[in-house]
Design brief:
Elements lengths: L2 E5 L4 H11 L2 E2 L3 E4 L5 E4 L8 E5 L6 H17 L4 E6 L18 H11 L4 E5 L6 H4 L4 E4 L2 H8 L7 E5 L5 H11 L3 E10 L2 E8 L6 E9 L3 H12 L6 E8 L5 H6 L3 E7 L12 E4 L2 H12 L12
Helix pairs in contact: 1-9
The chain binds ribose-5-phosphate.
The site of ribose-5-phosphate has 14 residues, from strand 12 and helix 7.
Length: about 300
């Protein structure tokens, strides 16, 4: 089976970088919008029998990028693809993986069902919000870890008295991976979400006095979590200097302003999403191109991904 890469509009640069490494057959789609707003995608050639990888994050605007992904997969299937793997570096809706209140939908499950409806064979994501995402999918899902890439990005500016900080309980497992890779101790902040744009840090567990926090998270959306954690850490005696690492930089709404107000020495995110504007000068984007290329090559060759995956 020939390896074909289809790059969606959400990850054009990252896709080009992956293609440079893999040198696959490329089926560059034409993605256009009709005057009434409908999306229309066309593939340039037949994919008869090919092993196809469709690369598309579902970040903002989430619904548009999701719809593009679904149409791209459908076009691949109708174009004769033998096997289709969706490579979704940032998987939107992952935070809605269960009902937290009566009357809510489980959006992550709906997205999984949509991908099943267009007959995706396998899903590859990077650092999803929860490892439980795998359970909402019927088809196999592999969650790659960008933690080694981000840890390598932090290393050059890491002070010796740094401490890895999980800014909420959901981040503890990930923080343990950073702490192990960087050889640092760890602190946990207990957080309560008040609304989509505001959170409260309620407790700091561990010693941070006089030390530099390295706040890690799966994503930075509005910046509320990082800000609340930093505030609480300062109140517990942390040095007024912070390093931040997150896999997915959404940076929506007040995020750029909030982050500019923090004493950030170094902020590292990956290119799972296109770069946002207005970030602090200390922001650095590290690429997951090699991680994705490696995973795609191994799947194509039926090799295991175990050492690229962060297990819960
Ligand atoms: C939530 O539990 C996530 O892991 C992130 O902490 C959260 O989504 C970040 O969002 P924000 O930047 O808006 O606080």
């Amino acid at each position: 089976m020939e390896l074909t890469l289809v790059i969606g509009s959400a990850n054009q640069r990252l896709g080009d970088a992956v293609a440079l490494i893999l040198e696959p057959d490329r089926a560059d789609p034409v993605v256009e919008r009709f005057p009434d707003g409908e999306l229309h995608v066309t593939l340039p050639h037949s994919l008869r029998g090919n092993d196809v990888y469709v690369l598309q994050s579902t970040g903002p605007p989430v619904d548009q990028q999701l719809m593009e992904l679904l149409l791209l997969v459908d076009a691949c299937r109708r174009g004769g693809a033998g096997r289709i793997t969706t490579v979704i570096p940032y998987f939107g809706y992952a935070r809605q993986d269960r009902r937290r209140a009566p009357g809510e939908a489980i959006a992550a499950r709906v997205v999984a069902d949509l991908l099943r409806a267009v007959r995706v064979d396998r899903v590859l994501v990077v650092d999803p919000h929860t490892p439980g995402l795998e359970a909402v999918f019927e088809m196999p899902l592999d969650a790659l870890s960008a933690v080694p890439v981000l840890a390598a990005g932090l290393r050059p500016t890491l002070p010796t008295d740094a401490v890895v900080v999980a800014p909420d309980l959901g981040a503890v497992k990930r923080a343990e991976s950073y702490a192990a890779l960087l050889g640092l101790p760890m602190v946990i902040v207990r957080k309560r979400r008040i609304s989509g744009t505001s959170v409260r840090a309620e407790e700091v567990v561990g010693a941070i006095d006089g030390r530099v926090p390295v706040i890690i998270d799966d994503m930075i959306s509005t910046g509320a979590t990082v800000c609340a954690a930093m505030q609480a850490l300062l109140e517990h005696g942390a040095r007024a200097s912070v390093l931040v690492a997150a896999t997915h930089g959404l940076f929506v709404g007040p995020a750029p302003q909030r982050l500019r107000e923090l004493p950030i020495e170094h902020l590292v995110v990956t290119d799972s999403l296109p770069s946002a504007v207005g970030l602090p000068p200390s922001a650095e984007v590290v690429s997951i191109d090699r991680l994705l290329a490696d995973a795609i090559r191994r799947l194509h060759d039926d090799q295991p991904l175990d050492d690229l995956v962060l297990f819960a």
